[in-house]
Amino acid sequence: MSVLAAAGAGRLCAVRAVFTCLWRGKYFSSGNEPAENNPVTPMLRHLMYKIKSTGPITVAEYMKEVLTNPAKGYYVNRDMLGEKGDFITSPEISQIFGELLGIWLISEWIATGKNAAFQLVELGPGRGTLLGDILRVFSQLASVLKNCDISIHLVEVSQKLSEIQALTVTEEKVLLERNAGSPVYMKGVTKSGIPISWYRDLQDVPKEYSFYLAHEFFDVLPVHKFQKTPHGWREVLIDIDPQVSDKLRFVLAPCATPAEAFIQCDETRDHVEVCPDAGVIIQELSQRISETGGAALIADYGHDGTKTDTFRGFCGHRLHDVLIAPGTADLTADVDFSYLRRMSQGKVASLGPIKQQTFLRNMGIDVRLKVLLDKSDEPSLRQQLLQGYDMLMNPTKMGERFNFFALIPHQRLHGRNHQMNACQSKPSPSPVAGFGELAWR
Ligand code: SAH
Question: Is the pTM of this model over 0.85?
Answer without folding.
Answer: yes
